[in-house]
Each structure stands twice: as structure tokens, then as C-alpha cells.
């Protein structure tokens, strides 16, 4: 798998001038998606602190990186500034259960800076991570948790990416809010629509 993917996102801006004219401006932004590196951890932690209520210590980032090096991806601008990230890993507990759970990934965190939201960046990062977890680790599905009140997250995961509701985890978050456990099943692994023999 190649080290990065270049994409171009456009952002439309409208300006109303004092003399009554409306100016329409489209900005094309070259953005690269690539695997996260250890050098990115400070910027990743900064993005996490600015974008999310759930924050992680540096050891947590390192743990994910060591467990699943191909599971974390970043979107960077032409100056290598991180605009968003996905922190994912392969499940490290499921294989110990009896019977063992099929190989699967877990998305721990997704964040995009506010000024880069609504551009499809999270969708592209998650799709890139799905592809990598499947190609590198043969994952059969990917799980994640989303706050019960996060309507934008529900739309992204369920409507845009095809995640399905798995279960409700009560008081999952530190502040006591419930989480929805969602699951993305790779189309080639989905047996729910196949006839039973």
C-alpha cells in the first residue's frame, strides 16, 4: 500500500460587500492522507485536545501505534500541518475469548479541526483506515463508539459509511453519557444477505 494519497478539497466562501455585491470564492486545498508517524504524536494530541471531550495520554497514542502501526492516519496540508486524524487499531482482546471473535479493527478516535469540517475529510480518513485494516490485517469488521447525542457522528458513520447499530453501552463515557456501539462489516465479509446452506 502506498504511503500517502493526495486529494483536493474545495471550500466555498461567500462575502457580502458594503456596496451590495456578493463575491463567491472557491478555495482548492491540496491535502494528503498518510499513515501517522511517531513525529506526529504531539500534533495528534493537540488535535485531540482541541476537537474532542475524550482526551488521551501520550502512552495511549504510543500503545496504538505499537499495536497497529497501519491503524492511524492523518490528513495534512501542504505545510504538513495536521488537519484531522483517525486513530484505529486491531482488537487485542477478542482473540482470547472462547470461541475467538473474528479478526476485527476498532476506531478509537476521529477528529477534524472545526475549520476543515463539512469537507468530507473524516469520510476519506475513515475509508482509508478501513482499507488499510482490511489489506494489512485481514479485518472482517470494524467497531467504534459514538456518543448517543452526536447526531453528526451518527449521520457520518451510519448514513455515509454504512456502519450498523450493534448495541447500547450505558454510561460509556466519563461524563456518564451512553454510547452506541456501531459496526462496519466489509462487503466481502457480510454474510447477512447470503443464503444459508
UniProtKB/TrEMBL annotation:
The keyword DNA-binding does not apply. Pfam families: Acetyltransf_1. One of its GO terms (molecular function) is protein N-terminal-serine acetyltransferase activity. Residues 31-187 form the N-acetyltransferase domain. GO terms for cellular component: NatA complex. Keywords: Acyltransferase, Membrane, Transferase, Transmembrane, Transmembrane helix. InterPro entries: Acyl_CoA_acyltransferase, Ard1-like, GNAT_dom. The chain crosses the membrane at residues 12-33. It comes from the Eukaryota. Gene3D superfamilies: 3.40.630.30. Belongs to the acetyltransferase family. ARD1 subfamily. This is Acetyltransferase, GNAT family protein. The lineage of its organism: Eukaryota, Metamonada, Parabasalia, Tritrichomonadida, Tritrichomonadidae.
